[in-house]
Specification:
Layout: H1 2-40, H2 42-57, E1 91-92, H3 99-106, E2 112-119, H4 127-137, E3 143-150, E4 165-171, H5 178-192, E5 203-207, E6 211-213, E7 225-229, E8 262-269, H6 271-290, H7 299-309, E9 314-316, E10 337-339, H8 344-347
Parallel strand pairs: 1-9, 2-3, 2-5, 3-4, 7-9
Antiparallel strand pairs: 5-8, 6-10, 7-8
This protein binds 5-phenyluridine 5'-(trihydrogen diphosphate) (5GW) and manganese (II) ion.
């Protein structure tokens, strides 16, 4: 009788363990299956992507009912200038685009434009006019993040920024020699375009600080790799461009080669492209430096070589970086950004 009870007790215990084991196994398999479906179901992945990246992945879309002038295939609004390169990149001049149309298309895309500017030594004096005028004309209505590199943060003026425009001040060590500033700038841009900041913006422009905006600079300038035609040489034959002509420099461009002469005072594009460009310039400049060589126009010479063999996807006419506001020419109908007059001897004395 006693033995029977013990036997039944053991049977029940065994059944209990078995039941627990079956339940546990079943639960585990269930959760395993759940995990599998979550990570392998492509529609879920796609849905997440679509909701976050929808606007950015789609091409430019215009809206039904939005009216604008009919584009013509027979009559161009500009006949005095060329508005496409031989590799079919647009050259942006006033009159070649409809800003209300492109604004209506880019407004849907929720884009951010990073903008870098360097103000070392006495160049901080240009900041007030540069930033104040930018706030009047530069990507008004779009999200802009300025990254200002300076060795004198205390001299950065208080500027009232427009809606969705932000300014980050980044302190850098002082540099006196132009060679160091020129190469240091490329190195900083190379790092910035590879940093986590790259995920905070869609496009980047790198601009000189000794400049002032006088007219609109907007989404017509956006592209994969964007170069600006230098305001002095646009009518010149290529052999008169101030390319580096000495073969001992990495920036050497042989006679007979060349498309346009680009300025180093303004360039841009996507983070990936600007990273490649600035990395190249920094590398070539340091090879030159190791041979005690310096290209004739520093970073601009290397930038021109890069852009000769890595064609920009969009070119901006000299409207986007003019010589001087008091100078006029018939082709430049709108001056958007112009160098300000500066006393080189005075501002370049950084000591
Ligand atoms: C520039 C030339 C010689 C020595 C120093 C400089 C310098 C350049 C400087 O002391 N501080 C400085 O911030 N820069 C940065 O480099 C500015 O952003 C400036 O706009 C840019 C290019 O130098 P620029 O404007 O003097 O060159 P150019 O060819 O437009 O006259
Ligand atoms: Mn300049």
């Amino acid at each position: 009788m006693k033995l029977d009870r013990i036997f039944i007790f053991f049977i029940l215990l065994l059944l209990g363990i078995l039941f627990y084991w079956v339940c546990y196994l079943g639960y585990n398999q269930e959760s395993y299956r759940k995990q599998q479906t979550q990570t392998t179901d492509p529609s879920i992945v796609k849905n997440i992507l679509m909701s976050e990246e929808k606007h950015k992945n789609l091409g430019l879309q215009s809206s039904p009912g939005f009216l604008y002038s009919q584009p013509s295939l027979l009559v161009g609004s500009r006949t005095d200038v060329v508005s496409v390169t031989p590799w079919l990149a647009p050259i942006v001049w006033e009159g070649t685009f409809d800003s209300s149309l492109i604004d209506s298309m880019y407004k849907k895309k929720n884009i951010t434009i990073a903008t870098t500017v360097f103000a070392l030594g006495k160049y901080t004096r240009f900041l007030k006019e540069f930033l104040e005028s930018a706030e009047q004309h530069y990507f008004v209505g779009y999200r802009v993040r300025y990254y200002l590199f300076t060795d004198r943060p205390e001299e950065v003026p208080e500027i009232k920024l427009g809606e969705e425009h932000y300014l980050t001040i980044l302190k850098v060590p002082s540099m006196d020699r132009w060679q160091d500033i020129s190469m240091g700038r490329m190195e900083i841009l190379e790092k910035l375009t590879k940093s986590e900041l790259a995920s905070e913006a869609d496009y980047i422009f790198c601009l000189d600080v000794d400049a002032k905006f006088y007219g609109p600079w907007g989404v017509e300038t956006l592209g994969r790799l964007v170069a600006v035609i230098h305001p002095w040489f646009y009518g010149y034959p290529r052999d008169q461009f101030t390319y580096e002509r000495r073969p001992e420099s990495q920036a050497f461009i042989p006679a007979g080669e060349g498309d346009y002469y680009y300025t180093a005072a303004a360039f841009g594009g996507t983070f990936k492209e600007v990273h490649e460009l600035t990395k190249y310039c920094r590398e070539q400049q340091s090879i030159d430096a190791s041979k005690a060589t310096e290209a004739i126009w520093h970073d601009e010479s290397h930038l021109n070589k890069y852009l000769l063999y890595n064609k920009p996807s969009k070119l901006l006419s000299p409207e986007y970086l003019w010589r001087d506001i008091s100078m006029r020419t018939s082709q430049v109908k709108v001056i958007r950004l112009s160098h300000v007059a500066k006393n080189n001897e005075e501002v370049r004395q950084n000591a």
